[in-house]
């Protein structure tokens, strides 16, 4: 019987198992997870679960019964330390697992702050349920929270903490928040929105010291000379793909485990997907490493297809979402290299779509609170429509016309 062993029980790993069963694979499927919970939804960790609006039981993808019925074996609290390629074994400290196909779905880990006192008890990173459970012990309305990093995690946590009544400061090292992922226009919109909600945002902020006593940080010093009081510090400065195991067995890695469009690595029976993989995407003709749930889901179908012998490949248009306050941000396409940005809708009313163009054509959109129209743009980008920016800039343009042909 063919054995598929999946390392990692996150979105990528679990959905690979589900896709295999959907595709009719009747061999053995084993998921190895070094976390103590059945595979669960990660996005609520910085949103509703952080605010304690949903119970831990609601985070799981599926119940224990489901895994039993589907004959998917899940080994929790189990860490794969090494792999023996000659005998096709994945090895933990006290057991080993045999495989015909090995799937790397090892995800990513928070980038650590290389600084004295970064191991203090009130400094947190946010990746797993246990991180949030530890944070819950420290969160209360009267406290001051310093968020190091003005990316999605920092901003989502800021919105959650402000709603819970904490005093929140974001320290962003770059000249604007979300600099790596969006335009000046959208960064400014989020900067203004958070500021109005009471978040203090300091850009160009270089943290020089975490000042601590008894392993508890009490203030954070900046290069500017300013010192900020802190009860809780959260660091959200990006994530690094978990490629240590892949490196050990000589898989080609460069910002993630390199794969072809079928999610196959440089070793034929080993595949990789999700946050840990840098996968060739035929839409762009280069490798992309994306950190998003839609990416993990799309690639899980590709991995399954590669194992059962179908012919799916990576041609998914990247997309992502982020929820802050009552703002639903949805992004589709890759905006890097854009040469114009047109705002469709009303940015002051927090209902708009930033349309990014290159050489006269639309390449990506960032949508705030326009989910229906976002879906139209996303569909157009996914289907390879060449939408002229001049058309989008026409004051009579309506996204509905993209598919009705009336424009
Ligand atoms: C707080 C937070 C909020 C997010 N919000 C959004 C959002 O709103 N929208 C969105 O699209 N995306 C969001 N993301 C990103 C999204 O969650 C990830 O892209 C997605 O989880 C990637 O899935 P994955 O399975 O590749 O990796 P992961 O979910 O990281 O799963 C990998 C698993 O493998 C385990 N593992 C690693 N090495 C080993 C080993 N050697 N042995 C055993 N197990 C191992 C890890 O511990 C982990 O459990 C968010 C991420 C975080 C952290």
Mind explaining what this structure looks like?
The chain has 407 residues and is α/β, with parallel strands linked by helices. It folds into three domains: 3-109 and 239-308, 3-Layer(bba) Sandwich (FAD/NAD(P)-binding domain); 112-235, FAD/NAD(P)-binding domain (3-Layer(bba) Sandwich), CATH 3.50.50; 326-404, 2-Layer Sandwich (Enolase-like, domain 1). The chain has ten helices and 26 strands. The protein has helices at residues 11-22, 64-69, 129-138, 152-163, 184-197, 244-248, 293-308, 371-382, 389-393, 401-404, and strands spanning 3-7, 28-32, 72-75, 82-84, 89-91, 96-98, 101-104, 108-110, 123-124, 144-148, 167-171, 200-202, 207-213, 216-222, 227-229, 232-235, 239-241, 257-259, 270-272, 277-281, 286-288, 319-324, 327-333, 340-346, 351-358, 361-368. The strands form seven sheets. A five-stranded parallel beta sheet has the order 3-2-1-7-19. Strands 9-16-10-11-12 form a five-stranded parallel beta sheet. α1 (11-22) packs across α7 (293-308). The longest helix is centred in the last third of the chain and has 16 residues, at 293-308. The protein is globular and about 60 Å long. Bound molecules: flavin-adenine dinucleotide.
């Amino acid at each position: 019987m063919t054995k598929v062993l999946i390392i990692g029980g996150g979105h990528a790993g679990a959905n690979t198992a589900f896709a295999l069963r959907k595709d009719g694979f009747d061999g053995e499927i084993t998921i190895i997870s070094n976390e103590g919970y059945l595979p669960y939804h990660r996005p609520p960790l910085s949103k509703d679960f952080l605010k304690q609006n949903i119970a831990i039981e609601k985070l799981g993808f599926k119940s224990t019964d489901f895994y039993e019925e589907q004959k998917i074996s899940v080994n929790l609290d189990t860490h794969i330390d090494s792999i023996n390629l000659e005998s096709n074994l994945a090895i933990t400290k006290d057991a080993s697992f045999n495989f015909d196909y090995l799937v790397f779905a090892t995800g990513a880990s928070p980038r650590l702050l290389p600084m004295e006192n970064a191991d203090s008890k009130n400094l947190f990173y946010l990746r797993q349920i246990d991180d949030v459970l530890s944070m819950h012990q420290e969160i209360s309305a009267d406290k001051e929270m310093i968020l190091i990093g003005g990316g999605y995690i920092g901003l989502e946590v800021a919105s959650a903490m402000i709603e819970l009544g904490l005093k929140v400061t974001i320290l962003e090292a770059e000249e604007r928040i979300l600099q790596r992922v969006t335009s000046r226009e959208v960064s400014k919109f989020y900067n203004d929105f958070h500021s109005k909600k009471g978040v203090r945002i300091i850009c160009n902020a270089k943290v020089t010291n975490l000042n601590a006593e008894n392993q508890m940080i009490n203030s954070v010093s900046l290069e500017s000379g300013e010192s900020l009081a802190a009860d809780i510090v959260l660091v959200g400065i990006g994530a690094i793909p978990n490629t240590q195991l892949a490196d050990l067995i000589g898989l080609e890695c460069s910002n993630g485990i390199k794969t072809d469009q079928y999610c196959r690595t440089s070793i034929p029976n080993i595949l990789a997907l999700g946050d840990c993989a840098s996968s060739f995407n035929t839409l762009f003709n280069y490798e992309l490493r994306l950190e998003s749930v839609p990416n993990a889901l799309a690639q899980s179908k590709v991995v399954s297809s590669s194992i059962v012998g179908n012919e799916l490949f990576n041609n998914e248009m990247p997309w992502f979402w982020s929820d802050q306050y009552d703002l639903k941000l949805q992004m589709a396409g890759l905006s890097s290299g854009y040469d114009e940005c047109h705002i469709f809708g009303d940015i002051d009313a927090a209902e708009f779509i930033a349309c990014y163009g290159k050489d006269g054509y639309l390449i990506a959109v960032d949508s705030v609170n326009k989910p229906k129209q976002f879906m139209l743009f996303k569909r157009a980008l996914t289907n390879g429509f060449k939408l002229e920016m001049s058309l989008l800039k026409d004051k009579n343009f309506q996204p509905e016309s993209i598919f009705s042909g009336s424009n």
